[in-house]
Design a protein that fits this description.
- There is one protein chain.
- The chain folds into two domains: 110 residues, PAS domain (Beta-Lactamase), CATH 3.30.450.20; 154 residues, Alpha-Beta Plaits (2-Layer Sandwich).
- The chain is elongated.
- α6 crosses α7.
- The chain is of the alpha+beta class.
- The chain is built from nine helices and twelve strands.
- GO terms for molecular function: diguanylate cyclase activity.
Length: 307
């Protein structure tokens, strides 16, 4: 019959330490260290015996030891999966996962097992990095879904969504909200004579002007083609008209074939509507109709909706 192998602490794939009970004199002194501890710390087992456990820990980990680990051991008799940092003989700091148990009896002592957690920390960091990248990608996808690619303004879907939110707030606060719809005059002629790239450049320059003169609370978006819309919370019809007239002057600074760019604008306001029909579709339809009437009346002007 083959002789049975006797297993000892040096056969365990982790660092094992034994210290005296913390309520005894010299309670932090190492009484035993196995080969795994010697390998982890870079210090021979015999040289570890007699040293203080606190000498092997970083200052932050010593605070954790005194304020959490030792009180827990005295109260519960054991602790599991506590992260601490140890110092090796070469001065490196290594994260470890510690399990410990307090033995019973007059000669009570603490048995410690330490598992190196460097790879675990690296994996945690990689997971955090991957999560942040995923959040970044999600934000980018969201921005793509709500933004007009050419102009960088919100698109038609997001314009409607934000307008409905602002209308609901205006209804609760009983404050006015106005919609301004504008369209570039003779834009098809620009595309036909100068090409679509030139037309795209004009759309981007117009969008920049609109964005620069929108308040933080305003929503400005591209409704489609050469048509844009402002949603103006806390804005009465008269103030919306003032903005529209200012836009005529600002947009006129954009030159097209040596001529100032012109726009036709329609304005509608919730203060002129019955409360039950206070909806974005209604306001936009009224402002859109007023904008087309401005075009029919000669272009390059602002008209207020007929309610």
């Amino acid at each position: 019959m083959p002789q049975q192998k006797h297993w000892g602490p040096d056969d365990f794939p982790c660092a094992c330490l034994v210290t005296a009970s913390p309520d005894k004199q010299g309670g932090q002194q190492l009484l035993f260290a196995n080969a795994g501890a010697a390998k982890l710390l870079g210090i021979a087992s015999e040289a570890l015996v007699g040293r203080k456990l606190t000498e092997l820990l970083t200052p932050a980990s010593n605070i954790m030891l005194d304020t959490y680990l030792l009180p827990l051991l005295l109260h519960e008799g054991e602790c599991d999966e506590v992260m601490l940092d140890i110092k090796t003989a070469e001065g490196q700091t290594i994260p470890v996962v510690i399990n410990a148990s307090l033995t019973a009896g007059d000669q009570g002592h603490i048995c410690w097992s330490l598992f190196g957690a460097t790879r675990r920390n690296q994996l945690d960091q990689e997971l955090v990095k991957a999560r942040r990248q995923l959040e970044s990608y999600s934000e980018q996808l969201y921005q793509l879904s709500v933004t007009d690619e050419l102009t960088g303004l919100v698109n038609r879907r997001q314009l409607k969504r934000r307008a409905e939110q602002l209308l609901a707030q205006a209804k609760r606060s009983k404050s006015p909200i106005s919609v301004v719809v504008l369209d570039i005059d003779k834009f098809k002629q620009v595309n036909d004579t100068q090409g679509h790239l030139a037309g795209d450049e004009i759309l981007k320059r117009l969008a920049a002007v609109l964005r620069a003169h929108a308040r933080e609370s305003d929503v400005v978006g591209r409704y489609g083609g050469e048509e844009f819309s402002f949603v103006l919370p806390d804005t009465c019809e008269a103030d919306a008209v003032i903005l529209a007239r200012r836009l005529h002057a600002l947009v006129g600074e954009i030159q097209v074939a040596g001529q100032p760019l012109t726009i036709s604008i329609g304005v509608a306001s919730s203060e002129r509507l019955e409360e039950e029909v206070n909806a974005y579709e209604t306001l936009f339809e009224l402002a859109d109709r007023a904008m087309y009437e401005a075009k029919m009346a000669g272009r390059n002007q602002t008209l207020v909706a007929r309610y």
